[in-house]
Amino acid sequence: MPGWGCRCSITYSAYTCRWPARSTPTGCPTTSRTSATASALCSTCKKSAPSACSTRPCAKHGLRGSMLLLAAGLVVGCQSRFNELPTYSDERHLLQVVVETPAGTNRVLHYDAASNDFKPEQRAGVDRLINFLPYPANAGFVPSTKLPASPRHPTGQALPALVLAESLPAGTVLEVLPVGLVTLDRAGELEPVVLAVPARPSQRILPVTSWRELRQQYPAAQEVLRLWLLRSAEHGEVRVVGWRDEQTAEQQIRQVQQKSD
């Protein structure tokens, strides 16, 4: 069976084979993820030369290699950095989002570019928890994008995104369709946030592909998101400025997309 040309990382630790997972419809394995760092960046898969990725059980293919690598203290990897992934998938040219904080949790996770991993956000050395209802959507960012520098983010930040879908692990790279854009005022700084749904219909919990459909078929969804954004912020520092459609979201993405992408 040919290998998958995924950008992925397989870490052998304590005789445990961590095979990559995927959430995008581009032909990568569909096994469960054991950790964020074992995530496959599979929405940029290319069926080319065989790689370290495999869909076969560890007992059949990975045991001998795992023992050798463990003895040598090596890590086999072909992984790109999450923030450097293309904004649009190579094969299907669909928008990609990297999940940082899964839906349904109160623990805030953020991508750390230095370690290429996902770590808890901290306040005074303590992991930050949302003192309200848990995340109603998967929070993440659009790779290879950067918003203008600001006092809160002196070097800029990737364009934030909320994916309306079932809970997805941190490190999931998902092909999505933008359905809207919400602009937040965070203590005087404007922050656009893309609203999206999975590109694959079977992964959608709301069968919509546009802002108009979302508002017409699920009018309460917008209000749920608005209330959560307001109540989950610390010290009431967030104000919802406005909501726009998918065309505006696409324009925003293009404006902040890195030229090197």
Automatic annotation (TrEMBL):
Biological process annotations from GO: phosphate-containing compound metabolic process
Keywords carried by this UniProt record: Hydrolase, Magnesium, Metal-binding
Cofactors required: Mg(2+)
Cross-referenced Pfam families: Pyrophosphatase
GO molecular function, one term: magnesium ion binding
EC number from the UniProt entry: 3.6.1.1
SUPFAM superfamilies given in the database record: Inorganic pyrophosphatase (SSF50324)
Broad EC category: hydrolase
GO CC terms in record: cytoplasm
Protein name: inorganic diphosphatase
